[in-house]
Fold:
Amino acid sequence: MIVLTGESLTMEQMRCILYKGEAAAACPQSMERVRRCRKVVEEIVADEKIVYGITTGFGKFSDVLIGKEDTQRLQQYLIQSHACGVGEPFPEEVARTMLVLRANTLLKGYSGVRPDVILLLLELVNRRIHPVIPQQGSLGASGDLAPLSHLALVLIGEGEVFYKGKRQRTAKVLAKEGLQPIVLQAKEGLALINGTQAMTAMGVVTYLEGEVLAYQSEYIAAMTLEGLRGIIDAFDESIHLARGYPEQTRVAQRMRLILTGSKLVTNQGDLRVQDAYSLRCIPQVHGATWQVLGYVKEKLEIEMNAATDNPLLFADGDKVLSGGNFHGQPIAFALDFLSIAMAELANISERRIERLVNPQLNDLPPFLSPQPGLQSGVMILQYVAASLVSENKTLAHPASVDSIPSSANQEDHVSMGTIGARHAYQITMNVRRVLAIELICAMQAVQYRGVEHMSAKTRGLYKEGRKIVPPIVKDRIFSYDIENVAKWLQAEKREIV
Structure:
């Protein structure tokens, strides 16, 4: 059981909730803060004080006063009118993450919601009822308004959910589970949709996928090194300590560990003096990606525990402040950076693929073909990798450098962070397929060299990989192989060293 406090949610806890079936619960002390804050909102409504989003309209309508008899309808209209998302829905694990993050931020006790709102969010998490949330439509400031409105619809019994593998009407599923939708009270609709939880959730899932891929890329690169009789000296600790980046040094250390006992790697001068950069510079390039992953993890964990709605209530109601914590710029920058770092893992992988298939760059059969000329072998697999890498270059253009004013220029600068998050996720999916292609090619190369000469660790990967992709004895439809390996890599939610 993961206990949410509003202060201490970690990436590892999110991994447990997403991939290990852990349930989530609210910390009792945090819920007491929530109750105290809620009393403040009720007093504001009773006294008809002028407070943004509680007794006023929203955005450009912030000067329109709302009577206390209309505060409930104000919140319901807010959710319905802002549920304007379009396009394909977010993956279920992203919607699940959004539920957890929204509950966690409300538990900080600055938002003014009733405990019932948080409890229903957690019921949805624990019963695996995931809102259908369209991916497109957020500007990444004023919060992820459109996506989070689709999440909030589910709490009031509207919209759709994913439930037991099917897309269904919310009201039907809640009734089946014996859950009652809530009637939103003052401030609650605004508290649910003012925030960065869509971009942050997509960022969390992308980070977790990217971290696993970064480890897998080292293992796959090690097999490629064996297939090309690469030079192990490039990973000597002295080289990497001399530069000083700890991430680079750790990559080199893991590469040495993976390749321990291999009779396929060589020493400088045995076959050649130096390898190409895509082999020799694995620690430098992959290590730089690890630096970015560390930065992104730090920013995401801050945002996972951040109060991001508006207004916020402090000092037991003595201060009710309007600000801009919903602005997604910190996460927009981080996820644009993640896009670049993950794209580079694919860039260097594609160059290793080229060295595996190009007869001008190795002594293996051309394109690893069983009958060069009659059969094309893996020729077109490299084309596919090149296409994915090129697509990533366009997706890696930073979304955070763009801004378009909204709400009659009241909201005149936005982050576009959710677009950046979606691009980072797409890039990561492409990276997985490029690595799948490298693994297919590397397995074929080491088979020519002699599997018995591999290191114990790469031989273990080879044996598992061959359960997914058989040896290439004649041309076949390789699309199936690529997708099957990619799915297998995605299923491996573990560090493989």
In short: The chain has two domains: 2-195, 203-491. The chain is about 55% helix and 5% strand. The two ends are 28 Å apart (CA to CA).
